[in-house]
Amino acid sequence: MKNKYNTIVFDLGNTVIRFDHNIAAKKISNLFRLEHKKIYDLFFDSEITRAFEKGELSPSQFYDKASEQLGIKLPYEDFVKIWNDIFWADEGTCSIVKELKDNYKLFLLSNVNRLHFEHIEKKFDIIKEFDELILSFVIGSMKPERPIYDDVIRRAGGDKSGILYIDDREDLISAAKNIGIDSIRFKNSADLREMLRFKKVI
User: Fold this and answer.
1) pLDDT computed for residue 19 by the predictor
2) Is the domain of 104 the same as that of 145?
3) Last residue of one domain, picked from the residues 43, 59, 84
4) More exposed terminus of the chain, fewer Cβ within 10 Å: N or C?
5) Residue 3: its pLDDT value, please?
6) What is the mean pLDDT of the chain?
7) The model scores a pTM over 0.90
8) Concatenated DSSP letters for 113-145?
């Protein structure tokens, strides 16, 4: 039985689509005999990665800056292939998304850069199930910043009480709850299914 929610918002990374930056970092490390941690830190959580995810750097600018900071020379096409080849679908969550499609508006809310999203959109058909894509590199704001959550609320019609948000990161869940958006911390698809049943969503 459908309850008060009309919009279900899913995080992308490690919720709908799994990823591991270690995969790319290890490939670069093996190619250039560089310290793995240095590459991983730059790829996963660095000033230039955050700028790329906020749309402040183009793909070519990110490539230039990353190459410079790592001290590597790798053709752009090869770099992009390594950078992108880190994803696989969470089949359990994808199944849940498809089940919810007929009864709810489905939003995808993600801190993501252009290269990764364009790759994911081509590789994984699940992206087509979402009615709205709210992406940090397009919006120019990243979770847990207020503007990106405000964009979710606006696109959902302005009523926060009708939104249910799902994310694997506690800090991002807390930010959403602090502005009145009901939220679920994602652990795995089986746990999510139970939480959705508890909330009478499925």
Assistant:
1) 97
2) yes
3) 84
4) N
5) 73
6) 96
7) yes
8) -HHHHHHHHHH-GGGGG-SEEEEHHHHT--TTS
Phi/psi zone of residue 33: left (φ > 0), alpha (ψ -120 to 50 degrees), beta? left
Cis, bond preceding 75 (omega within 30 deg of 0): no
CA distance 107 to 165: 9
Paired residues of 105 in beta bridges: 7
* Structural domain includes residue 1: no
How far apart (Å, rounded) are the C-alpha atoms in residues 135 and 130? 12
Which residues have C-beta within 8 Å of that of residue 180, sequence separation ≥ 6?
A: 160, 161
| Domain enclosing residue 179, as ranges | 7-18+89-198
pLDDT number for residue 1: 44
Q: Is residue 146 part of a domain?
A: yes
Q: How many whole angstroms separate alpha carbon 152 and alpha carbon 183? A: 13
In DSSP terms, which residues pair with 9 in a beta bridge? Answer: 107, 165
Neighbours of 117 (CB within 10 A): 21
Are 157 and 79 members of one domain? no
C-beta neighbour count of 53 within 10 angstroms: 21
The full length of the chain comes to: 202
* Dist. CA 187–CA 25, nearest whole Å: 25
149 and 98 fall within a common domain: yes
- Beta strands 17-19; 87-89: pairing state: antiparallel
Residue with tokens 């310290």: 35
Residues of the chain under the 70 pLDDT cut: 1-2
From the list 51, 196, 28, 176, the residue with the least C-alpha distance to 113 is 51
